[in-house]
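haha ok so turns out i had the wrong file open the whole time. this is the CORRECT one, sorry everyone. sequence first:
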Amino acid sequence: MGTNGSTMLEPLRQGLPPVDPTAVSGSASCALPARFEAVRGARSFTRSTLCQWGLDERFDDVALVVSELVTNALRHALPDDARPGSGAAGEPEASVRLHLMRWSTRLVCAVRDPSEDRPGGSFTPERTQENCDLESGRGLFLVDAYSDGWGWHPLAGRLTGKVVWALFMLPE
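then structure:
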């Protein structure tokens, strides 16, 4: 677990909502192991980070979204031999990583994973209603319902995979 500046934001920049990455007032990230217990670790990391930022009141909604994004990454985005329960420990580049970023009026949680496949198959923010009953879209339906927006994009450059992010508006 660690915190660093705008270098962490570089691979996330293109797919995030229009914000100035240099104006980030806080950012933190942690690598998550390829085990379903990682969801609990992601929630704990989110709680401590939001407490540090004075955003305790947003924990319930943000933690639910973080849980769904991390669960989706562990269940669908890891190579077969790195999935939870496969018995293999997965390569470092096949890891899942949680990023939390705060601007003055926005909070973004983003989960990076090694798959370039669209999250939830055909589920997209624009097709929420028609996908809410599908098993694969249920988690993203919750993300859509509890956040102020979400999206995803493939990573560029030397990083392979994608980032799935959710946006939360904060009071001024």
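DSSP finds five helices and five strands in the chain.
again sry for the mixup
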